[in-house]
């Protein structure tokens, strides 16, 4: 398939973008690391070599108060310029263009020196901000302009002003967080004054031949946010003030509507970009859950935007653009929007990477050199760890034989793809199917291997990636046919009654509960998803929110855990709240501090704080952890065979594809 709109150049007057793909801003965590800019340079260079038309860096603060956290990256002094030149040179040498995002976090700052329009604490930060004085506002405007001036000196092609997602500028614009009574508060004109003043000050400092992107919050998705009329008016004012490109911002970080997780439908918010595009003359960029070239092309061909922004998809595959242009879209390592290694890491102040691409952010460390001494390797288990190892090892030049007793590759991914909202895992399996084929891996499916059989085939090394088995609970009555494992429910599709108890509230317990309470996936029906989450597409209300539409309950589910902590506390930082909200709205009862005792015709006997009770349920589904399948490894070792163990076979604490894929890649890099 060709993508004529995606690869059409965009003339900005003083410069031209070679295509319509923008790599959206994403903080990697290297911005604050020792020698981090050397690693960032390689990270961005590979995306430029991969064909991206324009890159936007992770957010860089214009002053100390605007930093994400005390160590946060800042560009405000001449001595900061040198390290940024490493990035711009690397990108320009690769025939790319790059803009610096100027990000002032405002009340979202994770430090006690935060400032905002008003002294109103954010629900996601422990620090109450100080309200900026009029003098402080003027200084902040100058700091933005100075940052842009230094960015130009460092060789950037432009800047992006972060005016959305609930950060400082957005905090001034929205009545929710601006309670001022001076010239920067009250009326719409006053609340938007700082945004316009910042753009004008930047344009004055950088001249007319420098890209200025403004990331405008088109949907606040919080109460007392902006109206549609205000968003349109501000967009026009920004165009007049000298903005080159208008980027789409969706939702504040504190919004209770998901905007980026995997259950969000693809191109869920391009409709608002289309509305704004019809109101302005400058190019409009759209964003959020665009992860295939087909989706990107459809957006552009339908006139919904002029440019598509993708951040996480270019973590997942740095060659996304080149592959699309070469007609190899089926070879793209598609972003599944899991957030587990990228945003979850960032919000925990760890280095970002990617679950499906462990090289992301580790381009200078995780290097795969062609082997000198070719080995004959057997890999047992075609789950995440086995697929990753086999691909990398074969690409390095080893002879790799991948075995699995199942008739298809994917392992636990084949279970994950059946969960409502996790359909993206189909893409990962498609990608590995093609990659294994291209790498020349010898695939042996539907074959169960023995230690003796493997030993007799003369392998130099056997990589055991046999995964896990569900942990069984040895309790009275748990041998009853009505007690099921999660594999019985998700993989084998055994019939489940209307009243169900789910034991274990880790990721699997939540997945099972979702599968039992959602008759169909909202992710596959955009209109239903928008209604379910209360997104006001008519934009009649401030913030574009309206009452959510719940589905009628299909089962009575009780989700339980032994721990006394909040149910679901161990879920992902950026997605856990979504899963909890979905189950709560489906009527799922969540219990903690539960002691499991027995199952009988009376029901499931449990005790909480010593108080015994019986749950009247048709079925019990056990999701109480896993055990490593490492018997084969022990048998091989006893025969004197060289063995390595990866994935769930080595650690079965929780189904962890992120660790499994990285472990497979790291072993393949050194074997």
What would you say this structure looks like, in words?
It comes from Psychrosphaera haliotis. Keywords: Flavoprotein, FMN, Iron, Iron-sulfur, Metal-binding, Oxidoreductase. The chain is of the alpha/beta class. It folds into 3 domains: 10-347, Alpha-Beta Barrel (TIM Barrel), CATH 3.20.20.70; 376-469 and 627-670, NAD(P)-binding Rossmann-like Domain (Rossmann fold, 3-Layer(aba) Sandwich); 472-519 and 554-624, FAD/NAD(P)-binding domain (3-Layer(bba) Sandwich), CATH 3.50.50. It has 22 helices and 27 strands. The strands form 7 sheets. Strands 3-4-5-8-9-10-11-12 form an 8-stranded parallel beta barrel, surrounded by 7 helices. Strands 15-14-13-16-27 form a 5-stranded parallel beta sheet, sandwiched between helices. The longest helix is centred in the first third of the chain and has 20 residues, at 134-153. It is globular, with a radius of gyration of 26 Å. The model has no long low-confidence stretch (mean pLDDT 96).
How do the helices and strands line up, and which of them pair or pack?
Layout: E1 10-11, E2 16-17, E3 21-23, H1 36-49, E4 54-60, H2 81-93, E5 98-102, E6 115-116, E7 130-131, H3 134-153, E8 158-163, H4 168-173, H5 188-191, H6 193-206, E9 211-219, H7 228-241, E10 245-250, H8 270-277, E11 284-286, H9 293-301, E12 307-310, H10 312-316, H11 320-325, H12 343-347, E13 376-380, H13 384-396, E14 399-404, H14 413-416, H15 425-439, E15 442-445, H16 451-455, E16 461-464, E17 468-470, E18 483-485, H17 486-490, E19 499-503, H18 507-517, H19 526-533, E20 556-560, H20 576-585, E21 589-591, E22 594-600, E23 603-608, E24 611-615, E25 619-622, E26 626-628, H21 631-638, E27 643-645, H22 657-670
Parallel strand pairs: 3-4, 3-12, 4-5, 5-8, 6-7, 8-9, 9-10, 10-11, 11-12, 13-14, 13-16, 14-15, 16-27, 18-25, 19-20, 19-25, 20-21
Antiparallel strand pairs: 1-2, 17-26, 22-23, 23-24
């Amino acid at each position: 398939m060709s993508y004529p709109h995606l690869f059409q150049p965009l003339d900005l007057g003083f410069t031209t973008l070679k295509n319509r793909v923008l790599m959206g801003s994403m903080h990697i965590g290297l911005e604050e690391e020792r020698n981090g800019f050397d690693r960032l340079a390689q990270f961005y260079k590979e995306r430029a070599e991969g064909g991206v038309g324009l890159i936007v860096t992770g957010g860089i603060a214009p002053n100390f108060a605007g930093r994400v956290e005390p160590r946060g990256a800042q560009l405000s002094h001449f001595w900061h310029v040198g390290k940024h030149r490493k990035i711009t040179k690397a990108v320009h040498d690769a025939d790319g263009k790059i803009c610096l995002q100027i990000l002032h976090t405002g009340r979202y700052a994770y430090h006690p020196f935060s400032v905002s329009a008003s002294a109103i604490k954010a629900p996601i930060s422990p620090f109450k901000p100080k309200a900026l004085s009029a003098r402080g506002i003027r200084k902040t405007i100058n700091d933005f302009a100075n940052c842009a001036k230094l960015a130009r000196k460092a060789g950037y092609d432009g800047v992006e002003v972060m005016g959305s997602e609930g950060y400082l500028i957005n905090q001034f614009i929205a009545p929710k967080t601006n309670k001022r009574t001076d010239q920067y508060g009250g009326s719409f004109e006053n609340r938007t004054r700082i945004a316009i003043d910042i753009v004008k000050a930047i344009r004055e400092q950088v001249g007319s031949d420098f890209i200025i992107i403004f990331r405008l919050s088109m949907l606040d998705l919080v109460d007392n946010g902006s109206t549609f009329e205000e968003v349109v008016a501000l967009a026009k004012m920004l165009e007049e003030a000298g903005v080159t490109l208008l980027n789409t911002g969706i939702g504040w970080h504190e919004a209770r509507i998901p905007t980026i997780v995997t259950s969000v439908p693809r191109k869920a918010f391009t409709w608002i970009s289309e509305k704004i595009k019809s109101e302005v003359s400058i190019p409009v960029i759209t964003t959020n859950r665009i992860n295939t070239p087909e989706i990107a092309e459809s957006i552009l061909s339908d006139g919904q935007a002029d440019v598509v922004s993708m951040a996480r998809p270019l973590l997942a595959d740095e060659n996304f653009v080149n592959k699309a242009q070469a007609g190899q879209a089926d070879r793209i390592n598609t972003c599944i929007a899991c957030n587990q290694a990228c945003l979850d890491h960032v919000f925990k102040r760890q280095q970002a990477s990617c679950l499906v691409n462990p090289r992301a952010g580790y381009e200078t460390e995780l290097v795969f050199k062609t082997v000198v001494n070719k080995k004959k390797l057997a890999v047992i288990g075609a789950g995440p760890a086995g697929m990753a190892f086999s691909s990398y090892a074969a690409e390095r030049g080893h002879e790799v034989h991948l075995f699995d007793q199942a008739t298809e590759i994917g392992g636990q991914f084949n279970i994950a793809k059946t969960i409502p909202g996790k359909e993206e895992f189909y893409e990962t399996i498609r990608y590995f199917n093609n990659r294994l084929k291209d790498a020349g891996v010898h695939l042996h499916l539907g074959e169960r291997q023995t230690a003796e059989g493997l030993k007799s085939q003369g392998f130099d090394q056997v990589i055991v990636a046999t995964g896990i088995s569900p942990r069984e609970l040895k309790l009275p009555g748990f041998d009853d046919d009505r007690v099921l494992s999660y594999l019985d429910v998700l993989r084998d599709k055994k019939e489940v009654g209307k009243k169900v108890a789910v034991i274990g509230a880790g990721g699997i317990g939540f997945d099972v509960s979702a599968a039992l309470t959602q008759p169909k996936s909202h992710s596959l029906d955009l209109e239903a998803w928008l209604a379910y989450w209360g997104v006001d597409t008519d934009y009649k209300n401030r913030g574009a929110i309206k009452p959510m539409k719940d589905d009628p309950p299909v089962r009575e589910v009780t989700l339980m855990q032994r721990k006394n902590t909040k149910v679901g506390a161990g879920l992902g930082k950026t997605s856990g709240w979504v899963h909890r909200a979905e189950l709560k709205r489906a009527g799922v009862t969540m219990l903690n501090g539960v002691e499991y005792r027995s199952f009988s015709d009376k029901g499931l006997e449990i005790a909480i704080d010593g108080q015994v009770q019986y749950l009247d349920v048709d079925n019990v589904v056990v999701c109480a952890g896993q055990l490593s399948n490492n018997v084969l490894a022990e048998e091989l070792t006893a025969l004197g065979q060289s063995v390595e163990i990866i994935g769930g076979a080595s650690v079965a604490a929780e189904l962890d594809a992120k660790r499994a894929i990285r472990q497979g890649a790291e072993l393949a890099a050194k074997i």
